[in-house]
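sorry for the late reply, my laptop died twice this morning and i had to redo everyting from scratch. anyway the thing you sent over, i finally got around to it. pasting the sequence first so we're on the same page, its 278 residues, then the predicted structure underneath. double check i copied it right bc i was rushing
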Amino acid sequence: MARALSCRPYLAAFAARFRVMLQYRAAAWAGFTTQCWWGGLKVMVYAAFYHHTTQVGGPMTLAQTITYTWLAQALFTLQPWSGDPDVAAGVRTGAIGYDRLRPIDTYHWWFVRAAAWMTARALPRAALMALAAAVVLPLLHLDAWAWRMPADAAHAALFLLSLVWMIVLSVAFTMLLNLCIVATLTDRGINTLAPALVILFTGNLLPLGLLPDWLQPAMLAQPFAGMLDIPMRIYIGTLDLTGAWIGIGLQVFWSLVLIALGRAGLRRVMARLEMQGG
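ok and here's the structure:
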């Protein structure tokens, strides 16, 4: 009973922000339209590349690459492109002082709110993208450019597990961005740097499986792979079941590492934080 009561503030914080973010329907439609546009452009580029390539039996088929692209666009907001805007606003206005006064763990409080912020924005976009790319395109006889189903039931189940850890890992990295914002008192620098790392090392710009073979072990082992590439590879079946479990293990490992770093860093920053004015 005591444990349930201790979790209640965090569950309430998650639910409250999740509902608030779901109200931004225009933003969801705008994001869906943007992701469809970029997804369509990337699909056409990949189709042209595969059409003219002379290589046979590459690491990913065109159908797998297209599905990877649509799914990555659908889950775009689950990647840590910036720190939490509420934390940045709190730093600018001084409202972060209220978080220090709450009788709860600040790290957990920010973590669940960031998770709600990211997942609530992703849910409607992912649903619309699945409808457009997996249902509408086949109806228009564009099956070759459509979002395909998972490789098999086992990969589908492991994808869902990997997706959960993708969210945890992305939020843990977002917490590090929040930490930098609090330490530097501005979000401009870190929010400029983060997208360059995310788009390159997660596989958003180019699936990591299409990179040279000699780079594959290092790219799969680095933490950003777990924020997109590993779940995508599991979904399309380019990782066998053993490889899928290894990938999930890497997601768990990096999540624990980033959470530990974030908690330790937040304690130090909060201990030195000074509130001025009155």
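The chain has eleven helices and no strands.
thats about all i looked at so far, will dig more tmrw
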